Structure formats: C-alpha cells, structure tokens
Amino acid sequence: MANSFLDSLTLVRQNTPLVQCLTNSVVMQFTANVLLAAGATPAMVDTPAESAEFAAVANGVLINAGTPSAEQYQGMTKAIEGARKAGTPWVLDPVAVGGLSERTKYAEGIVDKQPAAIRGNASEVVALAGLGAGGRGVDATDSVEAALEAAQLLAKRTGGVVAVSGAEDLIVSADRVTWLRSGDPMLQLVIGTGCSLGALTAAYLGATVDSDISAHDAVLAAHAHVGAAGQIAAQKASAPGSFAVAFIDALYDVDAQAVASLVDVREA
Amino acid sequence: MANSFLDSLTLVRQNTPLVQCLTNSVVMQFTANVLLAAGATPAMVDTPAESAEFAAVANGVLINAGTPSAEQYQGMTKAIEGARKAGTPWVLDPVAVGGLSERTKYAEGIVDKQPAAIRGNASEVVALAGLGAGGRGVDATDSVEAALEAAQLLAKRTGGVVAVSGAEDLIVSADRVTWLRSGDPMLQLVIGTGCSLGALTAAYLGATVDSDISAHDAVLAAHAHVGAAGQIAAQKASAPGSFAVAFIDALYDVDAQAVASLVDVREA
Amino acid sequence: MANSFLDSLTLVRQNTPLVQCLTNSVVMQFTANVLLAAGATPAMVDTPAESAEFAAVANGVLINAGTPSAEQYQGMTKAIEGARKAGTPWVLDPVAVGGLSERTKYAEGIVDKQPAAIRGNASEVVALAGLGAGGRGVDATDSVEAALEAAQLLAKRTGGVVAVSGAEDLIVSADRVTWLRSGDPMLQLVIGTGCSLGALTAAYLGATVDSDISAHDAVLAAHAHVGAAGQIAAQKASAPGSFAVAFIDALYDVDAQAVASLVDVREA
Description:
homotrimer, alpha/beta, UDP-N-acetylmuramoyl-L-alanine:D-glutamate ligase, nine-stranded mixed sheet, 48% helix, hydroxyethylthiazole kinase activity (chains A, B, C), kinase (chains A, B, C), magnesium (chains A, B, C), ATP binding (chains A, B, C)
C-alpha cells in the first residue's frame, strides 16, 4: 500500500524519540513545541562539553547552523562524533548554505560524516552539492525541480536521504525519488516551520530505526505529517498568528489516516 | 486559613517584581511572557559583564543552566554573587542535572550558595542531592514521592525551599512538607512551562520578601498559580498550541479565589 | 495628505525587504514572526564571521544589544561596518541603555556610526543622549515628553530619525517632530513588541530607501503599523496570550486605510 510509510507516525507517538537539537536560537522554542506536539521529546543540548555525551543517549540529532556561535560549531562537531560512535541518526539542515561563506565551509566539512538525512530548500541543497550559489538568506531562489540532480548527488555521496522543501517536497535516496504534495503557503509566514521539520525528521528516523520502515519512508512521513498539519491549520486560520497555533494543534491531533488522505505522494 | 498563601498573588501584581532570568535559550521568550502575564517584569541579563550589577537591582534571580555556554556559566556565577551581596533571593533550576556531567558538576558547586528555592523534577532533585543518577534529558524517571528524602536533605542543607514538580508537586522546607495537586498533563506538551515556573518562583519570592508571607508559602503560591492556569487552559483547549495561548491568558486572568478553588493543598 | 506616509506599508509588502537582526535571544522568534506577518523577510545573521557579509545583501539591519554575548558584540560591530560600506540603513535599539554600564558604553560607541534610526523608550533615549540615568531594566521611568530634547539632540547628532516609544510615540528628525497616538497597553504584556518594532523600522527603511518617502515617514509608518495592529488585537483579545496571536494576525491583515483610520498623527 502506497501509504504504508505512515506507520512511522504511530511509532513516533509510541516511542517518544528523544531528539537532540543543535539549532539556531530563532527557532528553538518553536522546534521544541513541534516535537512535543508530534509525540517526540526535545533536548537542546548544544555545548561542546555536553553534546557528544548526549548524542549517545538521544534517538536522533539535528544539526542546524542557523545562528552558529564559535562554541556551537564546536558543539556540533562533538555531537556528530558522539552520534556516529553511538549509531544515532543525525540530520543536517544546511540553513543559508551557499549564501554565506563560513557556514558553507562548515557544512561542506560535515556533509561527508554520513548524515542519515539532509533537509533544506532547493538553493541550499544545490549549494551544498557544489552546483550553485545559494539563495537569499533563508529563502530559496532555485526551484525544487532544479535541485533534483543535486539531491541525487548528495544522496549517493552520503548514503542517506535528501529532502528538498518547496511548493512540492522532493525526497531522494540513492535509488528512489518521491514527490510529496502537501502543506500550505502560510507555512512560509511562520518562522521555524522548515527548521522544525529538520528536527521532526530526526524524530522519525530515531523512532523507526529498529523497525522495517526505511529511512526514506521515515523522512517522507515526517514531511507528510508537517504538510498535513499545515493543510488542517489553513482550514482554520487565514493569518499567520492563529495559523501557527492551529499548526501545533494539528501536529498533535492528526492521525495517520488523515495524513494519508490529505497529502499526495508520487514515486518518480 | 489554609489558602492564606494566596495573598502573595496579589503582592506579585502590586509589586511587579523585576526578575532577572539567566535561563536557556529555548524558553526565554515563553518565560518572559509567563512573567508578564502573571504580573512580574522579566529581564534576561545574563552576561558576566552585567549580571552581578543587575542582580543588585532585581527583586529575584533565576539560574537555569539549560543550554549553558561558557560565557553564561560565568554570568551565572556573577549573578549569584551579586544576588547574595544585595540580598536578592535566587532560585536554582537544576535542568537535566544528573543526566549530564558538566552541568551536574556546576549545579553541585552552586547549591551551597544559599538559593532561596530550588525547583526541578524528581530526577533532578534526587541527582542534585547526590541520591540518584538523573532522568532522561529533561524528563524525570523518578516519582515525586521518591524525591521527598532528597528534597528534605537539600532544604536542610540550603536553608531554602525545595519544590519538586510532577503529577503532584511537593514543596519542602526544613520543617514543612506540602503537597499540591493542580495542573494538567497538557502542561508537559508546552516547552518552558517548568522552566518558567522557576522564574515565577523567583517573582513570588521577590514580591513577598518584605511581607509576612513565608518563602515556603510564596513558592507554593507560584506553583498553585501555574497549576490553576493549566487547569483553566485545559477547559478551553485540547491541543498544545491553543493550550499554550489559553495558559498565558489564564495566568493573567485568574484571581486568588479562583486559584484557591482549583488547587488542592495538603500539609504532610 | 496627512497619511501619505502609509504608502510605505504597500512598499514593504511589495519589496519584502530582507532584514538582518542582531538582537537578543528573548525576542528572536517573535521578531521574525512580526517581520514575516508584516511582509518582510527576517535573517538573524549575527556572528562576526558572517554579519558584515550579510549586511551587504540585507535591505536593513537591526542592532539590539539586549542579551549581548562577547561574540555578538563583535558581530554587531562588523554588521554596522558592512551596512555602512554597502549603504544599508541600520537601526539602533538601545535596550536598557543607562540602566547597565557595559551596554551603555557600547551604545555610546556606535551611536555616531550614523544609524538611520534609533528606537527606544524614553529612559533609553534620554540615557543615550547623555541626559539621564536610564530606566528599570527594560522599563522606562521617564515620560515620552521628557525625552523630546534628547531625541532632538540625537537626531541632529546622527542625521537620522529618533523614535521614542510610549503611551504616545514621538518621531523626531533634525527638522520635524511628529506625535503618534496608537497602540494598546496590552502590547506591554507581550515580550518583544518593542524590540520587533525596531526590526520593523529597519524593514520600512529598507523598503522605502529608493522611493520618495522620507526616512521620517518610513519610521512613522512602522510605528503606525504596529500601533494599529495592537488596537485591532485589543478588540479581539483581552489577555496577553490571545492578544499576541491576534497582534500577529493583525499585522498581516491590516491595510493602509485601516491603519490610517486607527492611528492619530500630529505634527508638532
């Protein structure tokens, strides 16, 4: 059945995966609330003194260098080491990579440390693959379609899943390309919906790691969960303040059947 | 009268205590909004260059090492010095102590600097007392009952009040043990409800320091205020996004009588 | 026509100015959501390695030293250099200047680097002008009227616009003084409404820089937009949690005519 990937939503709620987020200060609160509403447990342990230790007990790790202090860069490097040693899946969100030189260099340095998934917008994925110059701040200037080659290149290089967020989302692994139509444009007007999707991707990977659900399906399910919640929120709210509230509510309320009926999945 | 502790709510609103929060980046915004809604004034002055100076003008200080950068640790140490010199009550929230070694060492180093109150979950309080290993990230794995001995030990050692948050809250000082039944499970699904309770505890201590209300009653009242607001919010909302909004509203709207009628206080 | 300044709201929505915010951790999320709701694009690029580079592509820069780490101070200095070199307008929000010695010294050091606008409360503006001692944390203890001389002094010294927030707002440039009556007292109970107004001021300046709208009118319009949204929110909500949601909604929904009909502008 085409929507079997949705079983992972049930696993997230059953396993309440502990997700360690090394992420930017702008979205920490929202990311934590997204994880809690979705059924996961957040912990923003990001200092070099603690991040490796914690990555060994976490079920998933998010690395998002959105506002990277020197100390947080060190914390990220340590967390990745800790995650790899412990076999904890980690997710790379290359925020604004391409657009800014220091973080581009940093992301290029960690992309080969086997992230289980990469999640970004088209311009970030294109830039991370070395195929383009990046977007405008956190906004993409490339189309999702234009990022397909870059995503495939990165998927092969990392052995992980690469997800490109946009009007339609693109989920790519070495031998599979899936398109997901879901969500609502209003998601762009609430800060942190993209960044927290990176964290939720880590939650889904952590919750399904011992199941027969593939990493590709887990990443797809995380995106479908967020997209469906965006659609439900858009039915209830038409401005971004109340939309953000309705979005968190919907992440919590929505069940797998509702997600399946709201989103459109297409294997390419 | 059993609920005389509730007079402190009135004092918070009259005195608008200035609460200096050295807290983690995840909950800064929510903590500030909780303080404002409850009637206090927040100021997150946390750098070593300014924290001691500010602790002398603040009415209460919160120390919560949830995402502790090296610089913030220094700021905390300075703030505690400034608070003690000025006689400003300070509150220790030992987030994830026990679970992570560096912050455990730090918390053990400051616990003897006479915090007016300690507020944590059962596992954190047990670990801080040296009686156990801590929880899972920010989640408790010990029951509140199991933390009674640790709370009493810490209360005697510090001369302050120790509050253990859980299904029922436990408020302990050297010669008194109070159980508080209040709140709603949904509070666990909104990030920062626990951390902001630490800040509100500092607000209540600061607002009542020159009154005849005991520190024990002030800490109890802070917990009752939050618990009652959680109950009111749960009557209005059944998912965490709208619950968080209703919780802030209820902190602002609720009066002492309503708190008294909603919570259940039991001296042990 | 007295309300011609309101054309700048249309320009903000047309041009979606990219606003680089070097601001305090407490209000980053709220500031980003305010900018998005108003029609701008936020980017919190604040490290010394990236801030100058980004200031050259941003349309406006906000400098708000609310929780200033040593690294963020360096980032601010670099961002101002980058902004000046590129001709990007930058806004100074002197949070708690006067009340705390280190940030006062820092603000005094950058005030002569030609901020396009300064936005603060009365006590902050008075202290920045060297005419008084500052307020209580982030709260003003001077009246807006009492800050007129300080605002005029700073406007002449910087060549920019100086805005004093209060019960009525005061917008001052070298040869013009405008009073704005708008807003609602509930705005004071939501953290970040003042700080995000600084960011929105940068958005308005950035969006109108190539138009025939004066910087004075752009700053005035930013304040009117926020004030009107506060008034609309106050019609829908009577407690700060739901007020904050309604405020973001109103920033998004309100059009120039509605702003004009809600606020009261008076040239002095």
